Automatic annotation (TrEMBL):
Residues 166-268 bind DNA. GO terms for cellular component: cytosol; protein-DNA complex. This is DNA-binding response regulator. One of its GO terms (biological process) is regulation of DNA-templated transcription. It holds the Pfam family Trans_reg_C. One of its GO terms (molecular function) is transcription cis-regulatory region binding. Residues 166-268 form the OmpR/PhoB-type domain.
Amino acid sequence: MFWILLDSIGVHTVHVLRAVMCAQMRTQLPIRTSLPEGPRILLLVNARTGAKTIASVETALKRTGGRVRRATERTEAEQWVQRWDPEVLVLLGWSAATGDWLQRWPFAADQDDLPFLVVSSGLENHERADAVAALEAGAQAYLPASMGFEPLTAQVRNVLKKVRTQTPVRMGEEESLCIDLASLRVWVLGQEIHLPRRLFSLLHYFVLHPDEVISNEQIADILWGGRGAYLAPNTLVVKIYRLRKILESAGARGWLETVHSFGYRFSPPQGLQNVIKRSPQ
């Protein structure tokens, strides 16, 4: 009887220790992290706009999951366009000078189709006329500040959805690698390869960040849509193994490297690096 009781106590202790260890593991997991490839949104602010309005607009833009950069001068905005390659421009406030400035677009050869939206700063005296002028200048939308900022979040999401589904990503002057986001198709060295959804997203991120070490945590975040979910190490290894084998089957051997203790790196041949470009729509 004594040994039976001792054995049951031992089993109970093992279960308790296991539960404690699992609880500790859960507390170490990230609650939620945003995807590293969040859309790039450039906000150009009218100098007379109040700080409260600016903060509200920035909050609305960040709700899209995007990374927001703010500029208060048009020359500063031009520099951001050339250096950062934003996916959408949001103008907070409209004026005749803004319209003239937009007539000089593009500021860079590959930015002739940068979409933009206009949000009134609440200072305009002729809002109806300004809305007409902004739309005639090519704005995707003109949103009065009185509408609140939920419509702005929705409009920016719609614009980004169109941009990201209509613009293929190509690598190499001879298009040695092409990812078409509209048809969800991939070609490597002229051969089409077929990828499940999560591996498609992972390869897309790798291609946009060539020769950078991508950590296991980042890869888990990409595979699970930014939910901050825990991904078992062997599951991650299997995903990478599958992607590597698919690339190798198309002749891209050695393009996906393991960086021990850090993560993985997408390293295409030297001649293909630094030539990623977006094709015109």
